[in-house]
Amino acid sequence: MNNRMIVYMIGRMLGVEGLLLLVPAFVSFLYGEQSGIAFLLTAAILLIIFLLAGRKKPKDTSIYGKEGLALVGIAWILWSLFGALPFFISGSIPDYLDAFFETVSGFTTTGSTILTDIEALPQGMLFWRALTHWIGGMGVLVFVMVLLSLDDDGSMYLMRAEVPGPEADKLVPKARSTARILYLMYLILTMAEVIFLLFGGMNLYDALIHSFSTAGTGGFSNRNASVSYYDSAYIDGVITVFMILFGINFNIYFAIYIKNWKSALKNEEARTYLGVIAAAILMITVNIYHIYGNVASAFRYSSFQVAAVITTTGFYTADFNLWPEFSKTILLVTMIIGACAGSTGGGMKVSRILILCKSVKQEIKRILHPKAVTVVTVNGQKVGRETLHGVYVYSICYALILVSSVLIVSIDNYDFATSVSAVLTTLNNVGPGISQVGPVENFFEFSWLSKLVFCADMLLGRLEIFPCLVLLAPELWKRKF
Description:
- This protein has helices at about 5-20, 20-30, 35-55, 65-85, 85-90, 95-105, 125-140, 140-145, 150-160, 175-200, 205-215, 235-245, 250-255, 260-265, 270-290, 295-310, 325-335, 350-370, 385-410, 415-425, 450-460, 465-470, and strands at about 375-380, 380.
- The chain is mainly alpha-helical.
- Strand 1 (about 375-380) and strand 2 form a beta hairpin.
- The protein starts with a helix and ends in a 12-residue tail after the last helix.
- The model has no long low-confidence stretch (mean pLDDT about 90).
- Belongs to the TrkH potassium transport family.
- One of its GO terms (molecular function) is potassium:chloride symporter activity.
- Its main location: membrane.
């Protein structure tokens, strides 16, 4: 493995994070907060690391599959470790493990929190929380690729390792150009949401916070009551629509841009995703009608919460812990399904669920008709054996991690629903769960061991398991520097 290139790239990536920290530092000083010094100190540390590791380019700059996986895993862990320092140094979150949890939750766009009083944090810190969502939504490495020059093959390996879903495709021949197109679409949608929220009466700061969190499908708000603080049907509607939009594969937006309407309209994953959302909203609306007394309110709250959970955004406008068990079960199912591949959303991804369901159907046909030739297709195209194998292995690993994590977390002696939903919500990067980790609760009371498990689950979920697991393989590090 090309370890020198990995060290060089890590140095440059941390340098980029140092530059990013200047943005919340500016916000802090704008509000007259001393916490801005914590951002500057952390930025200085990262600049020193950049000068030591990221200035001298190695002769061999090649990056292949294993380097891509290693880079992604290491970069996300280091960005979270250093990104936690401003919270810790400023005293906003005095325990470093809690600060690390909050930062991992931010970059992985999970939205789970250990904070008991969000509004007590300085404005610069709250801005940094939301900004971690926005950067993490499209991917730390994809963001860095937009800023740094890297050969096209190396860029594609990084994209494949970081972009969620069974496969990562180029929109245009050059991977770096693909990254720029993705971020341009991402920026346009984010700014559009900011404008719509401003029309709804939000101030600019709040609009930016909630747009960053929606875009990254994270769910961090600067309000203790999340979006319910605003008590506005218009704001609920705007955020609901944009949560759904950010949960769609960005390739579809590119297809619309180049006027490939047929490809966009016939995308099987997107149609399934929208169908699941519609069905879940309908069932929950009927189920909670008696709570709100009218269809309009039941539809408003159910549509917002379904969109928030299936896209793994994690905002809330109602305490769904108080809803009937049927509604909570539907939300748990949508939590597992997640958003589309190639979106900023989490979960298993609709494409994987589609492939698994079609594989079951194919196996039933094979049993009934042993001589028939059957294949799994998505969007009219055959799913390759390698992709099928990847989906099966991912699903098995997902189940093993889920069960193992629940076993460890159960040591804290919480009720079963709390333990399971806490693991599900972190592994699927959702944010709130049910029972004692519901929308109005937090993760503060869990033990240090459980918090470490949750941090690992958030990283495993966002990076889709393998970039993290590959770091544990001894053969990855056998090559000399």
